[in-house]
Specification:
Layout: H1 2-29, E1 33-38, E2 41-62, E3 68-73, E4 80-81, E5 86-90, H2 93-128, H3 134-167, E6 169-171, E7 176-178, E8 188-189, E9 198-213, H4 214-223, H5 229-234, E10 240-243, E11 254-258, E12 268-276, E13 287-303, E14 307-310, E15 313-319, E16 325-336, E17 339-344, E18 351-353, E19 367-371, H6 373-379
Parallel strand pairs: 1-19
Antiparallel strand pairs: 1-18, 2-9, 2-13, 3-5, 3-8, 4-7, 5-6, 7-9, 9-12, 10-13, 11-12, 13-17, 14-15, 15-16, 16-17
Helix pairs in contact: 2-3
Length: 382
């Protein structure tokens, strides 16, 4: 009896183990349900990016034109100033005294001129009546001319002293932002000082300087219509500026100029783009990337998340017969947002796995869930 009970329990345990093993096998072999898209030809706009440095349309050095101690600083670093606004004051006492001295010298010269004029006036009737020799009148006239020249010279000295006095007040030549101030109140400065007082960046219009390699420049010449480089630049669409935090500057700019030759030893040719900066967001010295769009002919478009990289090559999982997937290497001709333009490896009508590819293997089986690429492009445009 005990043997019978033991055999019954062993049979039940074996059936339970077989059932568990079968269930586990079913779970392991269950094909994952993954979205699949069918690719087709469609218009595509790609872009190229170039590292750029930003400068104001005018970055002006502010230097003293007279020597002296800085008596007052009226603007702080980073402040926005208007044209004509007072920035620095250099001690002006020596220049005030020089102006007073020049004015005094002018007054003396004018008095001497008046005296010489009186002398000429006295001699003229005497010469007319043959009382004295004409030589004396000519001598008096020559003296008057010399004194008049002294008056003109004294006036010039007054003007020069007045200019030097005005130079003791240093004003902003343009609207812009103050840069670093290299001196403090009490510092001795002059025209020969090594450092500038500061600089002002005129930033209502910003310049973004970037360079193209020789290969990129040759491609640029074929991408855009025009017989000359100037015509091709005019045919360039507005360009975007990508800021350091990868945000897109809201105002588009224009490429304006290209240098006439490649830089020595760099193998690149510089370009310049101009961007309006009404809000003063852009500052001189900052960096970013210039993005130039390129309108491509219609081509095969796939989402980036449908791809993976292996040893610098890009692959997708293509859906084959019997719902098996196969790794397929592709060639990418361009990129726009989260999409690739495929130039080789796939054909129109091929189906690829859209997402969930991290756990797939070559030859694996899936349950395909058809997904429209058009609806994806509407939700996330290129």
């Amino acid at each position: 009896m005990q043997g019978t009970v033991f055999l019954f329990l062993a049979s039940m345990a074996l059936q339970s183990c077989n059932h568990t093993a079968a269930t586990t096998a079913d779970v392991k072999t269950a094909a994952p349900d993954l979205p699949v898209i069918s690719i087709s030809n469609r218009p595509f706009t790609s872009f190229r990016e170039y590292t750029a440095s930003l400068e104001g349309s005018s970055d002006i050095e502010i230097r003293p034109q007279v020597s002296g101690y800085i008596e007052q600083i009226y603007a702080d670093e980073g402040a926005f100033v208007k044209k004509g606004q007072l920035l620095f004051k250099i001690n002006d006492l020596p220049y005030k005294e020089a102006l007073n001295s020049a004015k005094a010298a002018l007054a003396i010269a004018k008095a001497n001129e008046a005296s010489a004029a009186i002398n000429v006036g006295k001699l003229q009737p005497l010469v007319a009546n043959n009382v004295i020799s004409p030589i004396q009148l000519k001598t008096a006239q020559a003296n008057y001319d010399a004194v008049s020249a002294t008056v003109a010279q004294a006036k010039a000295q007054v003007g020069n002293a007045d200019i030097n006095l005005s130079y003791s007040l240093i004003k902003a030549p343009v609207d812009g932002y103050i840069g670093r101030i290299h001196y403090k109140t009490g510092s001795l400065v002059g025209p020969t000082s090594v450092d500038q007082l500061t600089n002002i960046s005129k930033v209502l219009d910003m310049r973004a300087y970037f360079s193209m390699s020789e290969t990129a420049f040759l491609q640029f010449k074929t991408d855009y219509p025009g017989k000359t480089i100037e015509e091709k630049i005019k045919n360039l669409p507005p360009v975007e500026l990508i800021l350091a935090d990868n945000s897109v500057y809201p105002v588009k700019g224009r490429v304006e100029i290209v240098a006439g030759q490649f830089g020595n030893g760099t193998g690149s040719i510089p370009f310049r783009a101009s961007f309006p900066n009404p809000g003063g967001v852009l500052r001189s010295g900052s960096t970013g990337r210039i993005r130039i769009t390129i309108q491509q002919a219609a081509g095969l478009v796939i989402p980036q998340e449908s791809t993976f990289e292996l040893q610098d090559k890009i692959f997708v999982y293509q859906l084959m017969d019997s719902n098996k997937v196969k790794t397929k290497g592709i060639q990418v001709a361009g990129r726009s947002g989260n999409y690739y333009l495929v130039s080789g490896g796939l054909s129109a009508g091929d189906r690829i796995v859209y997402s969930g590819i991290d756990n797939l293997n070559d030859g694996g089986v899936i349950q395909p869930s058809p997904m429209s690429l058009d609806s994806l492009l509407i939700a996330r445009p290129m």
